[in-house]
Amino acid sequence: QLQLVESGGGSVQPGGSLRLSCVVSGDILDYYAIGWVRQAPGKEREAVACISYSGRSTNYTESVAGRFTIFRDNAKNTGYLQMNELKPEDTAIYYCAVSFTYACRPTFDSWGQGIQVTVSA
Fold first, then answer.
1. What is the mean pLDDT of the chain?
2. Among 76, 73, 79, 75, CA closest to 99
3. Geometric angle at alpha carbon 72, from 82 and 102, rounded to 5°
């Protein structure tokens, strides 16, 4: 069984930055892609970013491209989401998720519990 634990959320003013971390532990497979998915109040879940196992391939939803950066440290089994130039519309619960594949795919196999990110003046 796999455990994903997020940290680094909180409240920040518009234009500020936060870095989310996701530590993966348990029955870790040889390789896995990491993604970040968010859900704002009253809205459906939205895939924000994903990174392949090697880290050479990343993708972002259009609304965060150029502001957010996803990266990972496989030696630490940890994924990160650096969020810059935060906007109020980034307010949501952010979930770390992994898929048991080398490359990113639209669906995920395991999820973290989620962490709140609030952007307000």
1. 96
2. 79
3. 130
Q: How many CA atoms lie within 13 A of 13 on its CB side?
A: 1
Q: What DSSP character marks residue 63?
A: T
Model confidence over 25-46: pLDDT tens digits? 988 778 999 999 999 999 999 9
Q: Is the dihedral of CA 120, 97, 26, 113 positive or negative?
A: positive
SS3 21: strand
As a dihedral over the C-alpha atoms of residue 55, residue 22, residue 8, residue 72, rounded to 10 degrees, the angle is: -20
Pairing, β 92-99 against β 78-83: unpaired
The average pLDDT across 74-97 equals 97
Q: Are 53 and 74 in contact (CB under 8 A)?
A: yes
